[in-house]
Specification:
9 strands; globular; alpha+beta; 17% helix; single chain; 2 helices
């Protein structure tokens, strides 16, 4: 296995998002060893969609971000598209959910689920 990076500064997570993720993890009895995997995949009306799920595996080329009691894992391909992104959580009038504030996105769809670069 290639040596993994311990921390990066390319992706930020707000306190609000962090608290929500930790709450979800606790309420669903997700084991402590599982990290939050953040990534992108092809699809959606703008070309790429965001992914977030809990994962216990770390793969070659993954970057690990540690914030308080949470480990976030991002694969190298996704990091290219997510560099500079801030993960936030919104519970306002426009809806409730996680929000990716991605400076690399040059177009987004109306629902905010997909983006293009």
């Amino acid at each position: 296995m290639n040596e993994l990076k311990n921390t990066i500064t390319e992706i930020e997570i707000t306190e609000k998002a962090l608290k929500q993720i930790l709450r979800i993890k606790e309420e669903n009895n997700i084991p402590q060893n599982q990290a939050l995997r953040v990534g992108v995949k092809g699809g959606g009306c703008s070309g790429l969609t965001y992914q977030m799920f809990f994962d216990e595996s770390i793969k070659d080329g993954d970057t690990i971000i540690e914030k308080e009691n949470l480990k976030i894992v991002v694969d190298g391909k996704s990091l290219f598209y997510l560099s500079g992104t801030t993960l936030d959580f919104s519970d306002g009038l426009n809806g409730r959910g996680f929000v990716f504030n991605n400076p690399n996105a040059v177009k987004t769809c109306g629902c905010g689920e997909s983006f293009g670069v």
